[in-house]
Amino acid sequence: MSKMNLPNKLTIFRVILIVPFILLLLGGYHEWDWFKVIFGGIMEYVDYIALVIFIIASLTDLIDGKIARKYNLVTNFGKFMDPLADKLLVCAALIALVELDRIPSWVVIIIISREFIISGFRLIASDNGVVIAASYWGKFKTTFQMIMVCLMIANISALWLVTDIIMWIALALTVISLVDYLIKNKDVMKDTK
Description:
By secondary structure, this protein is mostly helical.
């Protein structure tokens, strides 16, 4: 078995970061007893520590892809695990933000549903030997979702209007990217029975 390359290590690191990110975000909110013992002196900062972890995890997504393409380190593991790691990170953040009452659950349902639809569509395409590349709409969607999550984690009351606007843009881009994806790749479904 070959050694795991740097982009794949960064992808695994991104998945691992989800655990402390969620523990900090929810632990600070619920003020669990064991959590207060560990983080007692910095309880008011745990959201910001969680935000830093989320930003680091998000940046590994940019870095691992660039390294993989630049140095021809693209692997089947990376092709499978990289988008899965992204979905795990964003979905975990969104579900935690629902519990923190910082985002409406219906928004999260739309965003997560889009991810399931696209994942299923990609699976069908893959079974038919078709590789579907990410679109610019999808990249814009991801960027705005990440910004939205960062603003909601920071939870700065002076930025509530900006946060709401970014949420609506992210939601619109989620729907637009889904429709664009389905229209551009509608032929994939014709070959299935």
